[in-house]
Write a structure and sequence with these properties.
Layout lengths: L1 E10 L5 H13 L4 E5 L4 E6 H19 L2 E8 L9
Helix pairs in contact: 1-2
């Protein structure tokens, strides 16, 4: 089963939040077998459900360990919505 994940990161503990957001996106882009598309409002991840969700959650945990207070807004749909953005 495929999944499409739309997520936004809001670090609360750092004043230089942009670096943490870009690092998060770049780490996601290095994960094999998922597609990552970002824009000014959010980041979309597309791939096999278990693989994509597991890897996204691992990166979210990494941010929480590094930053402490951070809010993630996450939307998941059990479908490949990647073609909508082409």
């Amino acid at each position: 089963m495929q999944v499409s994940i739309d997520l936004s990161l809001y670090p609360l503990a750092k004043t230089e939040y942009k670096d943490e957001i870009w690092q998060f996106i770049e780490r996601l882009k290095k994960i094999k077998e998922i597609k990552v598309v970002s824009n000014g409002m959010s980041t979309q991840v597309f791939g096999e459900y278990d693989y994509a969700v597991t890897n996204v959650m691992a990166e979210i945990k990494r941010v929480h360990q590094a930053v402490g207070s951070a809010v993630f807004i996450i939307k998941l749909i059990a479908a490949d919505r990647d073609r909508v953005y082409e």
